[in-house]
Amino acid sequence: MSSKQVHGRCHCGQIEISATVDTDKVMACHCSDCQTFSGAPYRAVAMVPAAGIRIQGEPREYVKVADSGNKRFQAFCPNCGTQLYAADAEKTIYNVRTGFLDAHGDLHPVKHIFGQSAVSWVHDLSETPWHETGPNSVLCDPKTGQPK
Predict the structure, then answer these.
(1) Residues 31 and 53 occupy one common structural domain
(2) Which end of the chain is less enclosed by CB atoms within 10 A, N or C?
(3) Is residue 24 helix, strand or coil?
(4) By three-state DSSP, how is residue 76 classified?
(5) pTM
(6) Residue 113: CB atoms within 10 Å
(7) What is the C-alpha separation between 22 and 37, in angstroms, rounded?
């Protein structure tokens, strides 16, 4: 196990989260809920026990009831909408959304979960053209972000 101290804030700065992340528990979730809530084909998350997270500010929480009947808290900033975490009903484990963390580039998923609901084209992303910034910018290497 390798742990990393991380910190992040929502887009408007109203909510801040600091956590100790076990880098072996970072994953890409392809479940249909993550696709719906994020508006993206998958979401990178880091599982953090309650003792390892500190939340400043007051996130808004939406309670989602899964097909199993289990409740999941989906937290976001009430002002800017940044998605922050999901937690079990007892709030013992937080699935922290890595995109808003300062070190998001260092948190590589070690596994993909809910592959059964992954979009079919996600495996081909590195084969499509990558641009340095906007759609009319120069092409770049997908691994480095540097111009080709």
Answers:
(1) yes
(2) N
(3) helix
(4) strand
(5) 0.88
(6) 16
(7) 24
Give the C-alpha distances (Å, rounded to integers) separating 101 from 22, 65, 69, 88, 95.
14, 27, 30, 21, 13
Domain range for residue 144?
Answer: 120-148
Report the C-alpha dihedral over residues 118, 121, 125, 131, rounded to 10 degrees.
-120
**Which CATH number belongs to the domain containing residue 95 in this structure?**
2.170.150.70
How far, in Å, CA of 32 to CA of 28, rounded?
Answer: 12
Q: What is the dihedral of CA 114, 54, 49, 109, to 10 degrees?
A: 40
11/134 Cα distance (integer angstroms): 21
Q: What is the C-alpha separation between 122 and 48, in angstroms, rounded?
A: 26
Rounded distance, CA 118 to CA 139, Å?
Answer: 27
- Burial status of residue 48 (CB atoms within 10 A of its CB: 0-12, 13-18, 19 or more): buried
- Say whether both 50 and 113 belong to one domain: yes
